[in-house]
Amino acid sequence: MAQSIAQGSRPRIRARRNRLGLVHSRKGKYVSDEALERRHKQNRRNRAILEHCIAVNELGQEYTLQQLADLSVSNPKIRRPN
Q1: Within the chain, where are the H helices?
Q2: How far apart, in whole angstroms, are the C-alpha atoms of residue 69 and residue 73?
Q3: d(CA 30, CA 39)
């Protein structure tokens, strides 16, 4: 409930920050410090969940989902341009 209320106010907060000149292309590519911090927290939560989920393949090998995600092409560190 509280999260949905907070999400409902984010567009108004974002618009206000834009009008005040706190967010613009020269300031930080259109992301506020608060939004960036929320994204970092989300990434940490996701990583913790993936580290606790285990996948077992047909050979009986066990890997955490985080290990598999780290090897995936969706990992920006290993993504190659087409």
Answers
A1: 2-19, 25-28, 33-52, 65-71
A2: 8
A3: 14
pLDDT digits (tens, 9 = 90+) for 24-63: 656 556 677 788 898 999 999 999 999 999 999 999 999 9
Which residues are within 8 A (CB) of 32 and not within 5 positions of it... i.e. 6 or more apart? 14, 17, 22, 23
Q: Within 13 A of 77's CA, how many CA atoms are on the CB side?
A: 4
Amino acid found at 76 = P
Alpha-carbon distance of 52 to 47, in angstroms, equals 9
Between strands 54-56 and 62-64, the pairing is antiparallel
For the whole prediction, is pTM greater than 0.85? no
